[in-house]
Amino acid sequence: MLAFFGMKQAPFTREIAPEQLFHSTSQKEAMARLEYAVQERQACMLTGEAGMGKTTMVRAFAKQLESSRTHYEYIYDSALTPKLFYREVLERFGMNGASRPTVLKRQYQTCLLDLYEQD
After folding, report:
1. CB–CB of 107/95 below 8 Å?
2. How far apart (Å, rounded) are the C-alpha atoms in residues 46 and 102?
3. Domain residue extents for the chain
4. Which of 32, 35, 58, 86 could join 108 via S-S bond, C-beta 3.0 to 4.6 A?
């Protein structure tokens, strides 16, 4: 079917090559903020409406990162409660989260501080 229409790849897939991205003003600003967060060793959260290109932007940005020096986690579940968010982050870093929310939050904060101090 692709050959019939003279296409090399299927259109409208979720996997868009970074060089094929259209960078609107807001996307350029988001990329700059992501770059700033990495340079300043800060946590960063990218939010937006469904279908706005957040996943594609994060994938494109991740390809630019120096993998030996930068660790990132992409959590795509927007329905997480704070408790589940903390637990998800801790699990990504190989830790078991406590059941009490206050302890869980403290574990999350300690995890981030430990990561910050590792470099």
Report:
1. yes
2. 25
3. 20-74, 77-119
4. 86
